[in-house]
Amino acid sequence: VLVREALGGGRHAVRGGHEAVPPPQVSLFGNQPLPGLQVRLQAHAQFARDDADLAQAAVQFARCFHMHDERFGIGRVYALHNEPNRPLGEIGLRAGPLLAAVDDFTVTLHGRGGHAAYPQACVDPIPAVLQIGHGLQAIRARHLDPLHPSVISLTVLSAGQAQNVIPETARLGGTVRTLDEGIRQQIATDFRALVEATADAFGLTAEIDYRFGYPVLANDPAETAFCAMVAADVVGPAAVAADREPEMGAEDFAYMLQARPGAYVFLGTGPGSGLHTPQFDYNDEASPIGASYF
Q1: Where are the alpha helices (DSSP H) in the chain?
Q2: pLDDT digit string (tens) for 198-224?
Q3: Cross-strand partners of 153
């Protein structure tokens, strides 16, 4: 059994909860032997500051997993994430897709800059980048089955630094989140077609950097049923949400669920500020519950 604990820097703002659950687990069992060998693996990918950090963390995580797998023969994997604003002690899970795949993109449009008084002498990238931004939402609204969730978020937009200068380049970036691999691939194809066609129509050249990130986190049905049974023993059947709705967040534990059967669950920590915010304050009362679950 692999118990995965996420540790790292402050920006992820969930560190206290992840660190607090495993130590009480040891004290709860005291000197009694744990039922089976448990391997705790630390993952730092969530705290990456940029793509280079993320790539390095992913490589280290994979190496660490394979090293422990060779040594201990890891058969199943389990993980828990705290969840503010859910009832304290509620354990939520579902079989199949629970968290989304996430991909990110950066597009740079190259034109010809110049004075804003003479646009006819320029090739302005700004109208094109705005057109692409609108077009991305049309992919979601008109190209895809509305019964398959997906989110395309344009989160970065930059061009120019002076009011009277048409810039030579414009950039946009963002993320794509999906729960279905076919939809994921279709968006990637349609994205590239949209950007290239728009750039060509405006007389620009496009530089596209589309990066596939974490895959869909899909819980194994048999292991999900097992975890729901364990959760019911710990918090009672009424506090187990065994078929909770999936979310569009992403999680590196998805890689481990591709390698081994297992399940990922959420543990409610009661009212409070949301994750990834400076105001996040972990509820210590959840720690014994999480430890008992493991």
Answers
A1: 15-20, 22-29, 51-72, 126-138, 181-201, 221-235, 253-259, 287-293
A2: 999 999 999 999 999 999 999 999 999
A3: 175
